[in-house]
Specification:
Shape: globular
Order of helices and strands: EEHEEEHEEH
Helix content: 25-40%
Radius of gyration: 14 Å
Number of helices: 3
Strand content: 35-45%
Length: about 110
């Protein structure tokens, strides 16, 4: 079952709530890794959540480390956007995701 959707969320003490629709797919403790979206103009930082293999009930939140928060350029009280991208979820800073989306629309022929 693919991960889909766009979910605005607020960080609370470095924790982010995982949308209910994504929890079962991501598993109990999804792994967060630092990724960059490579573009012609700049590199967009985001965190990628991969499914875990644990067979426990899905966790409602994921704790992000200080280095992960710095990478995405958010503080512990900032808003983020979680997007579902088939086999993974990505955590973006909202303004960076909006810019990325706009550039993708402009780059895609109609």
């Amino acid at each position: 079952m693919p991960l889909t959707g766009t979910y605005p969320k607020k960080l609370v003490s470095g924790r982010i709530e995982i949308p209910r629709r994504m929890r079962k797919i991501l598993g109990s403790y999804p792994t967060a890794s630092i990724q960059h979206e490579k573009g012609d103009k700049q590199s967009y930082p985001y965190l990628r959540l991969r499914p875990s293999v644990a067979k426990e009930p899905p966790a409602q939140t994921v704790q992000l480390t200080d280095s992960q928060l710095r990478h995405v350029r958010v503080r512990t009280s900032d808003q983020v956007v979680i997007i579902g991208v088939n086999d993974r979820a990505e955590i973006w800073k909202p303004d960076m995701y909006a810019t990325y989306e706009k550039e993708q629309r402009l780059a895609t022929p109609a």
